[in-house]
Design goal:
There is one protein chain. By secondary structure, this protein is mainly alpha-helical. The protein contains seven helices and three strands, in the order H-H-E-H-H-E-E-H-H-H. It has a three-stranded antiparallel beta sheet.
Length: 177
């Protein structure tokens, strides 16, 4: 039905409800995956992402990790401190520049990565990349419009599918027994 402004009306809220249900399903899927990850691996999504980045980069500075995964250096430092306490990474000062802190994965960290199943976002990326470019663009445009509609433009976010906040990522996330 067309309104006087030429816009479609959704009098029964059918389309609106379908969009809200779809958003809720996405949120629930991410939450279930996040909880499963903590139970299986003992790490949150952001912790595992940082551990993967350190492993892939060899010995790397905290700043380089932060830049690679689009998080603040302070956030990454807090998560790396937690990973170091768990014996999954080691940190040391650069000999050439004492201001730089270098991080690398320990044998225990590498073993954990070798046994961890793929993150939900890895499956998403693989499936998303298999879509036609027009489909990818349409999804991106729709999601950007939703961000605007939901007044979420000012929320800082990294490309990590997780319900854990980055403050929670620095807390103890031992696997449940």
């Amino acid at each position: 039905m067309m309104s006087t402004h030429g816009l479609h009306q959704d009098p029964a809220g059918t389309i609106t409800n379908s969009v809200l249900i779809s958003l809720r399903r996405i949120i629930q899927s991410i939450a279930l995956n996040s909880r499963s990850l903590v139970k299986r691996v003992g790490l949150t999504g952001p912790q595992l992402t940082i551990l993967q980045e350190v492993s892939n980069s060899g010995e790397v500075s905290v700043g380089e990790v932060a830049k690679a995964i689009s998080l603040s250096q302070g956030t990454v430092t807090g998560i790396i401190e937690r990973l170091e306490k768990r014996g999954l990474v080691i940190r040391r000062r650069s000999e050439s520049d004492r201001r730089r802190v270098l991080v690398q994965t320990t044998a225990a960290g590498q073993q954990l990565l070798d046994t961890a199943s793929p993150l939900m976002q890895e499956l998403f990326v693989e499936r998303f990349n298999n879509l036609q470019e027009w489909e990818q663009t349409m999804i991106l445009s729709s999601l950007q419009r939703l961000v605007t509609i939901m007044d979420a433009k000012s929320i800082e976010a990294a490309a990590i599918l997780s319900t854990a906040t980055f403050d929670e990522s620095t807390t103890n996330s031992e696997p449940e027994k």
